[in-house]
Amino acid sequence: MKKIKRKYFVDLELQGPMLGRLLVYWFFGMLFISMPAALVYTFLQPDMNFLLHVVQVWKMHWPIFLMLTVSLPFVLYDMLKFSNRFAGPMFRLRRELGKVVNDGEFSQFKTREKDFWKDIVVGFNHLAERVQSLEEQLETEKPQKQVGAKKAEHEPV
């Protein structure tokens, strides 16, 4: 049975502000829905206070605002899952680059089927293959050069 990860935030530094922006957009969306309606009521009944019109809009259209509020967690969750499709590959790429810097260890990695930026991962994997083959080539040439240097030391001039 396949183990399913339940890690929602892959990159909190990216995904946190992104969800915060979505909340701000939601708030301004609610504001931009209610304010024009309150302005219409203000023109229709100019003798009433504007804030009373805002309250009237909220009283008349509360089901719409309720549905928008109830749907917000689902939208946030979907956006979080969607952002994992590009935050995940970048997280794994950073981890692999850290291994290269710290340990000198190159290893290939794969993306999930629906991930974005597969071309960057493919490029990294080609780079990893090339570096590994160059390191292997260097290791095989090193002993030959050392043997050649030892022969040159013992040859008469």
- Number of contiguous helices: 4
Mean pLDDT: 84
Helix content: over 70%
Structural class: mainly alpha
Return Rg in Å. 30 Å
Approximately how much beta-strand content do the residues carry?
Answer: under 5%
Approximate shape: rod-shaped
What is the number of independent domains? 1
Name the poorly predicted regions.
none
Report the major sheet.
Answer: none
N- to C-terminal separation?
71 Å
Count the beta strands: 0
SSE order, one letter for each helix or strand: HHHH
Furnish the topology, listing elements before pairings.
Blueprint (H helix, E strand, L loop, with lengths): L11 H33 L5 H11 L1 H42 L14 H37 L3
Helix pairs in contact: 1-2, 1-3
Notes on the structure:
There is one protein chain. Helices cover 78% and strands 0% of the residues. The chain is an all-alpha fold and 157 residues long. The protein has one domain (12-154). The longest helix is centred in the middle third of the chain and has 42 residues, at 62-103.
